[in-house]
TrEMBL record:
Keywords: Oxidoreductase. One of its GO terms (molecular function) is oxidoreductase activity. This is Oxidoreductase ptaJ.
């Protein structure tokens, strides 16, 4: 029986990731490929039933892109494996059933269906090629493609982040994982938000506005601001949509991208998403919000997708608009935190003092966590690269994060996460603030005076 290519991981020097600074040491691609293969063959996409995604591929591929060596790769792999669950069994009959779009849709949204969807997408990719499969199952505008496209953004963007890594590193196995991830993920009911926002935008009844202005509209809307609940926990995105769907749609529909503005729109999304790093609290130690962080880590995946010649412009525009609109939802879901640019611009670094981007990369690669730190820092560097050409444009006000603010936020991230959880992994959550727009979330963060 022939080995399926789509179930095999083979990293190559032709696809080494964006925002690179240093070259990867000899032997690292082979080591990383084996680690990714082990993850693919052994571990579930969900290490727990609620808000528990497997980040091993994200972590390892970030290390590769950032020039890490064998030590850093082993650190990334070991930090991720301890909590993982084994793959559920494949339902072989269901794999065949999934060829029927109606049966496919009927079996979606069940976490333990992941392995069955994975086997199905591997078959499809072996037959058609991974680019054709992505186009068919995400962009063909069929009912199934519409459902799967929306699901890519579920779980705080995790399936589309995963897809971005698969495309960036040209790995069919990781593309298959991402599509299976989207198909099996439990729903947060963002599909209606996407489709209704899109319908309103296309109606011609609302004008386009810069994304930065829409963040302000979200914060100034009392109904939206009052709809956020800290007690919603990881489901806070669903909660704010449940309580203020119409109001969020009215704002989000104003983010509209023309074909000729695709590059500018991508940069705008990146800069505005990164501005949530300025969601700080007067008198408190500087922290990055865990939820807002994902607006940034997902941005590099969108940039990867925007660079693909095999994806049609209309589909790129749709993805970009959906990403910008969902960013507004997650901004609202965390209490529409006040952005304090001065806390970033005037930040006095501690452990990262004197570092440049190369030093930052090298230091961050040694931090023990599940990949969030390195993903965030590389995405900031990529954002700096993408936004730079627009900083002095006629619409410069649409880009709230420019210049050395990108590196300052990387320093805040590094200084506020390094050493936390080194002795006790149960304290890893203390690396972040968990709801920057909510007063109680800051009560657990040290005062600046105590540092």
């Amino acid at each position: 029986m022939a080995v399926k290519k789509s179930s095999q991981v083979h990293l190559s020097p032709e696809h080494m990731g964006l925002a690179r600074i240093d070259e990867t040491a000899p032997g690292c691609l082979e080591l990383a490929s084996q680690m990714l293969q082990d993850n693919h063959d052994k571990y579930h996409m969900y290490f727990r039933d609620v808000a528990g995604h497997n980040h091993i591929p994200h972590s390892i591929l970030s290390v590769i892109a950032m020039g890490g060596g064998p030590k850093e790769l082993r650190r990334a792999y070991d930090d991720g494996t301890a909590i993982q669950r084994p793959l559920p069994p494949v339902d072989t009959q269901a794999v065949q059933d999934l060829k029927d779009p109606e049966k496919f849709m009927a079996k979606m949204l069940v976490l333990d269906g992941y392995t069955t969807f994975l086997a199905f997408f591997e078959q499809e990719i072996d037959l058609k090629g991974w680019k054709a499969v992505v186009n068919e199952y995400c962009f063909s505008r069929t009912p199934l493609a519409e459902a799967l496209l929306s699901q890519l953004f579920e779980g705080l963007y995790h399936p589309i982040i995963h897809l971005g890594f698969g495309i960036e590193f040209d790995q069919p196995s990781i593309v298959a994982e991402a599509l299976a991830h989207a198909a099996s993920h439990d729903p947060g009911n963002i599909d209606q938000f996407f489709l209704r926002s899109e319908k309103l935008a296309r109606s011609g009844s609302v004008k386009s506005k810069p994304l930065a202005e829409l963040y302000t509209e979200v914060r100034d809307n009392e109904k939206i601001r009052g709809a956020a609940r800290l007690q919603d926990g990881p489901f806070r995105g669903q909660g704010v949509l449940k309580r203020a769907m119409d109001e969020l749609i009215s704002v989000a529909a104003q983010f509209q991208v023309l074909p000729e503005d695709l590059e500018r729109g991508t940069a705008e999304m990146m800069s505005c998403g990164a501005y949530t790093g300025a969601a700080q609290k007067a008198g408190k130690a500087r922290k990055i919000d865990f939820f807002y962080m994902h607006l940034v880590t997902c941005s590099i995946s969108l940039d990867v997708i925007m660079r693909q010649s095999w994806i049609m412009t209309k589909d790129k525009i749709r993805l970009l608009e959906w990403k910008g609109r969902l960013d507004l939802v997650w901004y609202a879901a965390n209490g529409s935190a006040q952005m304090r640019a001065e806390d970033v611009i005037e930040y006095k670094p501690t452990l990262s003092k004197g570092m440049d981007w190369r030093g930052m990369y090298k230091a961050a690669l040694n931090i023990h966590d599940d990949g969030h730190v390195v993903k965030f820092i590389r995405a900031l560097k990529n954002g700096e690269n993408v936004v730079r050409p627009f900083e002095r444009s006629q619409n410069a006000a649409s880009f709230p994060v420019t210049g050395d603010m990108w590196f300052k936020m990387a320093q805040i991230c590094y200084d506020s996460t390094v050493n936390i959880g080194e002795e006790n992994p149960n304290e890893l959550s203390k690396k972040w603030v968990w709801g920057a727009g909510f007063e109680p979330a800051w009560m657990k963060i040290p005062d600046l005076e105590s540092l």
